Amino acid sequence: MAASGLYGWLFSHDKDQEMTMQFISGHFKDGRDAITSRIKELESLGFLNREEVRIDGRFAGYNYHLSLPSDKDSTITEKTESVKTETEKAVAANPKQSKIMYNIYNNNIQDNVQDNVQYNIQESNIPQNVLDAFPHYVDLFDKKHQPRTNYQKNKWLECLEKIQRIDGYDLRELYQVVKRLREDQFWQTNFLSLLKLRNRDKNGILYVDRFMAMKSNEKPKAYKMIPNLIKFYTYKDPAGKQLIGAITKGAELDDFALAYKLGIEEYQKLLKYLQNDN
Known about the structure:
The protein has helices at residues 2-11, 21-25, 32-44, 128-138, 150-165, 171-183, 207-216, 222-225, 255-262, 264-277; strands spanning 48-55, 58-69, 76-87, 100-105, 229-236, 242-248, 252-253. It is of the alpha+beta class. The chain has three domains: 2-105, no CATH class; 123-216, no CATH class; 222-277, no CATH class. The longest helix is centred in the middle third of the chain and has 16 residues, at 150-165. The protein starts with a helix and ends with a helix.
């Protein structure tokens, strides 16, 4: 009953539904060992046909084909669906030791270890702007740290979607922050996965909040645009309007001179920065 129940449950899902071991075990009280045992039982009875898959000579998992019993005599008939397994990492060809993910598809096994990353996702659940931004985020990370399996890719997509929907950040601004962090000597070795953004630091603060706060505190370009700068300061004109002044090694610049040298956009950024700093 247990094995046949799992068999029927697998067939009850849409053919495009990604089915991982984590997903399966999350719907049952049984642990992974029990589920694995039932899959082996179905295999021994002929309801599952296991085909080993190798990519570039290395073990990559198994392709399981589910078969439907005939309405007349309950014998095994043609294969109508497939259950594909793939390993999250390259492992030795030993099923008992490998960490295997189970996925249901209605097609042949796909190569998930291609140089150009391919995505097998339910796009209807992810906003288009997240899908468009996703490859650009992936390119910020070294190949060895990029998501390889469909499960990993989906987790990265879900992370971006939550950052936009729940945390309320603009993905274009976030991209610039992630790009700078990946170029930073410290963070390029301590920020190896996009999933870190929704993890919490030792103070319980989401890294995405921490990183975006770092962005807001970055000094504007104006600090590099004024030669021999010592400091900027704010002051008010007789009408109470806040203005900016600057002290350099050779002179002092008033608001008019700074606005001319910086341009409107950089001037406004500098004014906002100084107001926040005060």
